[in-house]
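Question (not urgent): is this output format expected?
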Amino acid sequence: MDLVFGLLWLLTVFLEGIYCQGVYAPPTVRIMHSGQACNIEEERYTERVYTIREGETLELTCLVTGHPRPQIRWTKTAGSASDRFQDSSVFNETLRITKILRHQGGRYYCKAENGLGSPAIKSIRVDVYYLDDPVVTVHQSIGEAKEQFYYERTVFLRCVANSNPPVRYSWRRGREILSQGSDKGVEIYEPFFTQGETKILKLKNLRPQDYANYSCIASVRNVCGIPDKMVLFRLSNRTASPTIKLLVDDPIVVNPGQTVTLVCTTSGGEPAPALSWVRGTGALPEKSVLNVGTLTLPAVTSEDAGVYSCVANNNVGNPAKKSTTIIVRALKKGRFWITPDPYHNDDNIQIGREVKISCQVEATPPEELMFSWLKNGRALRSSERMVITQTDPDVSPGTTNLDIIDLKFTDFGTYTCMASLKGGGIPEISIDVNISSTTVPPNLTVPRGKSPLVAQEGETVELQCLVSGKPKPIILWSRADKEVPMPDGTMQMESYDGILRIVNVSREMTGSYRCQTSQYNGFNVKPREAIVELIVQYPPTVEPVFTEIRQGLSRNIVMNCRVLRAYPSRVLKYEWRLGSRLLTSSQFDSRDDTEYILRNLQRESYGEYTCDIINEAGAGRCSFLVTGKAYPPEFYYDTYNPLWQNRPRVYAYKLQWTQMNPNAVDRIIAYRLGIRQVREAGQQRWWEQEIPISGMIQKGELLTYNLTELIKPEAYEVRLTPITKFGEGDSTIRIVKYSGGRRTSAPTNPHLREFHCSFEEESICMFTQDKSDDFDWTRHNAATRQIMYTPNTGPSSDRTGSKQGFYMYIETSRPRREGEKARLLTPIFNVAPKNPYGATNSAYCFSFYYHMYGRHIGTLNAYLRLKGQTSLESPMWTLSGNQGERWWQARVNIHPTSSFQMMLEGIRGPGMEGDIAIDDVSIDEGECGDPPPNNLRSLAPPKGAHIWQLCVTLLLALFSHRR
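Got this back:
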C-alpha cells in the first residue's frame, strides 16, 4: 500500500477510534494574545497578566474547542465609572481595543458555552502602564503672608507624577545629582514615607547656593519602553505664591441678552502665574470666550447664572482664587389665592367679614422684587381697611397680601397684583382677581359614568373631575396610592380644566386616581377631592409565543397554549387554526390552557398552527411551526482536519461534521454540497453535488467527505444542506483555507518518506499535547516572546535564525515547579508489513533540533510509543543541563514493529531559567546517515557545553568504528 494513502487511512482509523464514543464535547477555553504586549507572565493560580502601554492596541483571542462549536462572549469586571465595556460585551473570538486607556485595565473574561456541561471560562488580567508628566510644587515651612522667600526660611519642593507601575524620583540642582547625605542643607523624603506618590526635597534654612534650577526626574525604569520624564523649577529670592485682583463687582446682576465681561489680573507671584476661569456648577458655557484673564459671556440667559472663579497657579504655595456671582434677572409663575375669612371657619365671602387676597411670583434676584396693587385699574394705597403687606412670613418668598377688613358692597371689583424688578428691563407680571357677590368656593364632583372608567390597553383615555366655583381653581391629579407615580413619572400633575389625558394607556396604569383643588388661582379653603377608578383591559398574554416543531411523518405531536394573565380574567373562547382553516374552537372551562393533538402526521399536516385565546380586549396568539425540515449539520472544529497536498498545484481537505438531532425528522437521504471560491472581487457561483447517505445517522456520529482538486492557496466557502423526504433542511457554511507549510514543500499531513514539521502553522502538523502531563508545550517565535523577566534562557530565533519563525518550547516560569513534565506527541504513523507473514523490518531516522540554554535547564527526552502501548519504556534519547545559546540537532534510529508515534518530553529544572525549545522535527524512511548521538544522559556541564558535546560525539563515533 502506498505510504501516503496508508497514512491517510491510519489517520481516519485513529480519529474514528476517538469519535466512536460520540464527538459531542463540552467547551474548553484558552486565551491567546497578540499585538503590542510589553510582558505576559503567569501569576498564582495560573492567572495570566498581560501588560500593555497606554495608547497601544490590546488584542486578545479566545481559542475554544468543543462540539457543537461553542458561542463565545467577552466580558470585563467593572472598572472605573467611565468604563462601559461591561455593558456592551463582545461576542466573537477576538477582543480588540485600539489606543487603550488606563481605566480600561482590569480582568477580561472569555466565556464559551455550547449547551453541554458548564460553560468554560478563562480570564486574563490586563495591566495598562503609563507615566504622566511630573509636576513640582513649592511650599514654605511657615506662613506665606510675606510672599517672598529669603534667608532662614525652610522650603519644600514636592514632585508628583501619576504612573503605573509606581514611579521613582530623583533630583538635580543644576547638573549636581542630589542624594540623601550629599548636602547637609538638603533632606530627601523617599517614597516610602510618602506612600509612593511623591518625593519631597527639603531645603533647610535657605543658603545662596540653594537658589538654583531644580530638576525632578520621574522614572518607571523604562518598563514597557516608557521613557523618563523631567520637569524644571527655578528657585530664586523672588519666588512667591500668586496673588490676583478681580476687577468686577460681586454679585453681577444683569438682564437676559446682555454681555458680561469678567476681568482678572495677577498682582504678584514668581514665576508668573497662569490664570484660568472655572464655574462652580461644572464646565464654562460653550459660548464663553476666554482671553488670558478675561472671560466674556455673550447674550447671557438664566442657565448662565452661577458662581465664576478666577484661579491663579504657579505651583508655589496654594493657588489664588477669587469668585463672583452672576445673577440673571427673571420673573415667572404668577399665582393668587383668596382666603374668605382668616378668623372665621367660613368658606364663603360675606359682607362685613374680612377677605385676604394673596399674590405670589418667582423673582431673581428676590430682593429686587416690587409689588403694587390696582382696584379696577386705579392704584391702591394701603389704609386702615385696605392693608397691603409686601411679604408674608407664613408663606414662601415673593408673596404680597391685600387684606380687606369689614368687606362692603363697594369693595366688589377687580383687583390687580403687579410684580416688577427694581432694575427694570424685565416685563411686569399682572394678575387679576375678581371679588364679587358671585364669587363662590369650589366644588368637585365626578361625572356620572366616568368612574369606574374602562379602557382597552393602548387607547387614549380622559379622567374627568367637574369643578365649579368662581374663580375656578387649578386641579391637582395624583395616585390614591401616594407612593405610585403618575403616567408621566411625576408624583403630581396639574390640570386647568379638570381633565387628565393619558395617551397609550397600559395595564400598569390601572388603579385609583385622586383629583383635588389647589389653593392656587382659587380659594384658600380646605381642598375638595374626588376619586376616579381606571380599569385597563388587555388581551391574554400567552405562552409559547412561537415554537418550531420538527417531526417526521406518521408521528404524533402535542401542542399546548397557556394563559399567563388577562383582564378581564374570564376568557371567552379559544380557536385552533392551520393557516386560515379553523380546526376547533370552544369555551374555556376552569383550566388556563388548551391542547391540540396532531396524530399520525402526514405531509399535508405540515404548516403553521395558531391558537387564539380571546377575551373582551382582544386575542393572544400561540404559534407552532410544524415542519419536517432537517436541523443544520455542525462542522467539527475540535481536531485539526487532515489536509494534504497530493499534487504540487492542488490540495485536498477532509470535511468532518455531525448532524444535529438526526432522529427528530425523517431519515436524511443525502447532503447537498455547495462549494465556491472566496474572492474579494465578488462571490463566484456555487458548484453543487449530492453526497448520498445510506442508513440512519446516529447522534454524535462523525461524517466525513474529502474535498479534492482545491487550487492552492485559494480559500473556499463550503455549504452543506441535509435532504430528507420533506425536502431541504437548514444549511451550514464554513470557510476552508489552505494551510500548507510555508518554508518547505513537504506536506503538512505527513507521510513517512519525508515528514517534516517546522511549527509554522497553528495546526502544528497534527502534534497533540499529552493529557497525562503537568503542563503544555507552547508555540511561539522570538519576535513576540517577552524575555524581560527571564533574559538568560530560551532561543533568540528559530532554528534557521529567523525571529519570525516559530518553534515549540516549555515555559518554566511560575507556577511551574521542579520535575513537572510537558509532553508533545506526533501523529500516529502506520507501518505496513513488507512480507506476507506480517513481520516488519522498517527503520526510520527521527531527527529534531533542540535549544537548551539556561542555568536551570532540566531534561529533554524522546520516546517511541507503539500502538496499544500504555506505559513508557526507557527514552530513545535523553539530554540534561545547559547546552549553550545555540541550536543542536539530535538524530535517532528507530525500528517500530507496529503503528507508532514519537513523544518529546520536557522536564522542568530547579529554576525559572530553564526553557527548552525544539524545532524542525522530521521522520525519514531508512536509518540516519551519520552515527546518531544517542543516550546522552545528563552529560553536559553548564559551561563549555558545545565543546563537551563535540567530545562526546567524537568518542561515540570512535567507539562505533571500533565495534
